[in-house]
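Title: Comparing notes on inverse folding

I've been comparing how different people in this forum approach sequence design from structure. To keep things fair, I'm posting one structure and asking everyone to reply with a full sequence. Here's the target:
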């Protein structure tokens, strides 16, 4: 398909978008009938009918995406008359494209257009999830650093931090830190948290925050007392996860957080140099 045609179809597609008073985006079927290469309304209605069926099968309410409306059209005499039309959401437009004649270049374009848009949305969602996980990892690092400081302040030394953290892991996973590292194939010189999924990072952070608060509130002054507090908090968090159907030790490892961080940093540099780079 020539670049000029692609650009023309893209411009026409977006140009016909309208909005309701409440801001809902829609297209009118009689407008897109011609955009999609259908000369006869009846032929186009056959495609719309198939799209409605697909909408219903997918579990969506047809009337939410295909709304019957009237439209005034000009007659040769200079007068007007009302004809039937259909107000279509973007999802309805997508279903029509999927059920249209792919031999028509306009339909082929629309199918590709929506595929690209879907992929773009998936990439955005993936990057948002990766950014959330990186943020959770950084937050846990800061919280554990704070706990280390509390241990130093209240016990006179921070050599017990690693021991207290490992006891917390045992309580959260019902397995030792080393067992989880073996299960997740974590290198010996890397922290378990660098391969933990977001929900586990947040769970560990929450338990650690409670430990910090109670260690200060109750002036816990030795490793035994702080360990007991940390174990109790991790057990409580584990209990909540189990009640919600989440078993921490059964979750798969996540991608190495350092790789995620490098990828996000690289994407950010590309976006600064070329805003279109993230669409590829």
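Reply #1:
Here's my take.
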């Amino acid at each position: 398909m020539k670049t000029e045609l692609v650009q023309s179809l893209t411009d026409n597609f977006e140009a016909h978008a309208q909005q309701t008073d409440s801001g809902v985006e829609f297209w009118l079927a009689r407008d897109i009938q011609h955009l999609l290469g259908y000369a006869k309304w009846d032929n186009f209605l056959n495609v719309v009918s198939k799209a409605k069926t697909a909408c219903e099968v997918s579990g969506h309410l047809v009337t939410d995406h295909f709304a019957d409306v009237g439209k005034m059209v000009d007659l040769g005499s200079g007068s007007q008359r009302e004809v039937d039309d259909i107000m279509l959401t973007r999802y309805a437009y997508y279903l029509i494209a999927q059920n249209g004649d792919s031999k028509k270049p306009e339909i082929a374009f629309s199918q590709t257009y929506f595929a690209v848009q879907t992929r773009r949305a998936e990439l955005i969602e993936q990057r948002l999830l990766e950014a959330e996980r990186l943020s959770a990892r950084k937050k846990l690092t800061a919280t554990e650093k704070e706990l280390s400081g509390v241990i130093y302040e209240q016990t006179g030394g921070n050599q017990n931090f690693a021991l207290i953290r490992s006891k917390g892991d045992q309580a959260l996973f019902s397995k030792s830190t080393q067992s989880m590292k073996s299960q997740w194939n974590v290198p010996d010189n890397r922290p378990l948290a660098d391969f933990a999924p977001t929900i586990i990072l947040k769970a560990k952070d929450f338990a650690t925050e409670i430990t910090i608060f109670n260690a200060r509130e109750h002036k816990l002054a030795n490793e035994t007392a702080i360990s007991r507090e940390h174990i109790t908090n991790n057990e409580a968090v584990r209990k909540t996860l189990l009640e919600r159907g989440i078993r921490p030790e059964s979750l798969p490892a996540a991608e190495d957080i350092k790789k995620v961080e490098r990828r996000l940093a690289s994407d950010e540099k590309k976006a600064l140099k070329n805003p279109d780079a993230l669409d590829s």
